[in-house]
Structures are given as structure tokens and as C-alpha cells.
Amino acid sequence: MKNKSRLAFCLSVCAMIGLATLTSRSVLSSQGNGGRLEGTWNVVLTPRNCATDDPLPFPPPFPELVTFMTGGTMLDSTSFVLPAAKTPGQGVWSHVAADTYRYSFKFFNFGPDPNDPTKTVFTGWMIVSQEVQLNSTAMEYTSSGTAQFYNTAGVATGPVRCSTTTATRFE
Length: 171
Known about the structure:
- The chain is of the alpha+beta class.
- The chain has one domain (2-169): Porin, CATH 2.40.160.
- The protein has one helix at 2-28, and strands at residues 39-48, 62-69, 73-78, 89-97, 100-113, 116-134, 140-150, 156-169.
- It has an eight-stranded antiparallel barrel.
- A hairpin with a 2-residue loop joins strand 4 (89-97) and strand 5.
- The two termini are 34 Å apart.
- The model is unreliable at 5-31 (pLDDT under 50).
């Protein structure tokens, strides 16, 4: 019974995502540049040295999936961190001018409990911010930006991380 409920829930979510993608495609041409980012994108993120902009040796570039929805909300999923160690990223995006956009999203992190390594505990969150440059056909984009970790008290920890991305529209 529990598996049937889970399956029904998963199918409902997939249907909603499919409908949102179809709806955003039909809106692309009617919204001018502001709607051109909407849709789902195959993204490759490259971590960079903030001072030199050189790619970092670790982690290597890794794939992500990003969805920009009508109304300015977005979702991010990454292949770099195991799903048990973080939630999907949820955030907002906006049209800046011409083919330039900005987005920010937040996800929660989890790790082993220091008192019982067999248990997982909330360890904080990360906020990622990027500025996007969409190409003229709205089929590819590049972006650059930063990420900052926060502990459970909301205090920024560690250095700001920098990255760039390249993306192609998922079709």
C-alpha cells in the first residue's frame, strides 16, 4: 500500500513537471527576453579559484539539472553530492536585461552525527548565486557566480566558492 502511494506521488510530480515544461515552452515566444530562460537545462558546473578564475583540480566539472519556471522560481539538482547529503536546490530567478539573467538558490546539507555516525543530522545550508548570459537562440547559456556555506546558526563558514557553468536546453 505504501509503495502504491509513493508511486502515485512520484507520477503526480512527474506530470506536474512535464506540464510546467510544456507550458513554459508555449510562453517563451510571448514573453520577449524575460521568458527565454524558462525550461529545463543540462548544466556542467566547473568549480574555480575565485582569485585567478582557474578551474580547480577537485572537484572536476560535474553535471546538474536546472529548471527555471514561469513566475521566477527554479529548482536545481546536482550529481556531485549524494541525495542523502543534501536537498534539491530551490530558488528564484529574474531577467536583468537583454539576454542576461540572475538566479539564487538554497539547499540544506546533512552529515554524520558526531555522537552517532550511524545517524544523519542537519549541518547547515548553502546559497548559490549566478549571473547567466543566454545565447541568441536561447538554446545555450553560460554563467558565473558564487556559493557560500552556512552553519545551522546561519553563520557563513569557510571561504566563498566560485564557479562557472555551461548549459544546453534539455529537450
